[in-house]
Inverse folding.
């Protein structure tokens, strides 16, 4: 799975709303939308680390890719 899929799944699993989460990590809502959207945008590493820390998961988990699953 891609970063956007992993992020979407984790946010849903933890029942976190996007607007709430964007405020917690200090990025605009529209920027967060680009990370969870179908365009597969990747955040800068510092933002990726903030996302992982706030979700209490590793950055490796978020960026892991499963071949054949797109």
């Amino acid at each position: 799975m891609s970063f956007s899929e992993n992020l979407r799944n984790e946010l849903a699993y933890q029942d976190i709303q996007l607007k709430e989460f964007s405020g917690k990590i200090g990025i605009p809502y529209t920027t967060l939308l680009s990370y969870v959207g179908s365009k597969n945008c990747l955040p800068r590493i510092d933002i990726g680390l903030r996302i992982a820390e706030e979700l209490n998961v590793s950055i490796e988990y978020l960026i892991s890719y499963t071949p054949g699953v797109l």
